[in-house]
Design a protein that fits this description.
The chain is an all-alpha fold. 81% of the residues lie in helices and 0% in strands. Helix 1 packs antiparallel against helix 10 and helix 3 crosses helix 8. The radius of gyration is 19 Å and the shape is globular.
């Protein structure tokens, strides 16, 4: 797979996630966030398991203990990101959640500095300021209008950044995208349902009422889209993956306007535009600089 093909696959994953926001929101009319997350990723784990076993047979060896521990760490980051996002949807709109989740495009290079001592391009810092300005406008031009759900969506973006960074690193080290996917799904499902048992009432009627959303998000938004993400990240960088995946914000807003009739204030549209401009800036400026430097080096 070429890098362009990988990035297009990531764009497809982002579109699927954007549509998944609607199902995630409507499902909680009947079921709690932890049970919803647990059931969706349990379905995803079961769906991917046969393919992970085929991958293991093809490689003629099972994942090592070190690889399993690494995959479980990705699963822990997935659990934190998925649950904070889902709980946040109780008190924020799909539009706000999808755009605020896109903040991981800023967090990914920062985490790369902390974990791997890889310093980001200078454009990341003005991009971060643009993001803050966009969030301010998205909230209606007043910080006190940010809801608890908005705050949880920002926290969620941090954990998604960790998941993207770790998934990209470990899939390249292990060359086992399906084993990684299945393991992270299982860890996320187990932790979510464990918490759900203690804090959320559950019954078969609630599950039945949300079954369409659970199956869609479990098989498509989780099982398919996350596998596409992990597979494609073998052929691109984490910051570049983040820019394409963050387009889920636009898809989320689009689907929310179509299916949920959500609207945002006029200033919010400006904020959305600033957030997306910052996302593009963070990715395009370093790429343009690299090509210019290569051209100058060739001329010399």
């Amino acid at each position: 797979m070429t890098r362009i093909q990988a990035n297009l696959v990531l764009l497809l994953a982002a579109a699927i996630w954007g549509g998944g926001f609607v199902a995630q929101s409507t499902a909680m009319d009947n079921i709690g966030p932890f049970w919803f997350v647990g059931l969706r990723f349990a379905i995803a784990a079961i769906a991917v398991l046969p393919f992970a076993l085929m991958e293991t047979r093809k490689m003629k060896s099972a994942p090592s203990r070190g690889e399993i521990r690494a995959f479980m760490l990705v699963g822990l980051a997935l659990f934190m990101g998925a649950t904070t996002q889902q709980v946040g949807l109780l008190t924020t709109t799909v539009t706000n959640s999808s755009f605020l989740t896109a903040l991981y495009v800023i967090f990914v290079p920062v985490i790369a500095v902390v974990l791997y001592r890889r310093h980001p391009h200078w454009v990341v810092w003005p991009g971060a300021l643009m993001m803050l300005g966009g969030i301010f406008l998205l909230s209606g031009g007043a910080i006190n209008q940010l809801t608890t759900g908005d705050t949880l969506s920002i926290i969620c973006a941090f954990f998604w950044a960790i998941q993207i960074t770790l998934a990209g690193r470990f899939v390249m080290q292990s060359n086992r995208p399906l084993a990684l996917s299945c393991t992270q799904f299982a860890v996320c499902a187990g932790l979510s349902m464990l918490i759900g048992v203690f804090i959320e009432p559950i019954n078969t009627a609630a599950i039945a009422s949300s079954l369409t959303e659970i199956i869609y998000v479990g098989l498509v938004s989780s099982g398919l889209a996350f596998v596409l993400q992990v597979v494609a990240q073998r052929y691109t960088t984490a910051p570049q993956a983040a820019i394409f995946l963050s387009s889920e914000a636009l898809f989320g807003a689009l689907f929310a306007s179509i299916f949920l009739q959500e609207t945002i204030p006029a200033a919010g549209y400006v904020g959305c535009a600033i957030i997306f401009a910052a996302i593009l800036l963070v990715e395009l400026v370093p790429e343009i600089s690299k090509r210019r430097n290569s051209r100058l080096a060739a001329e010399i």
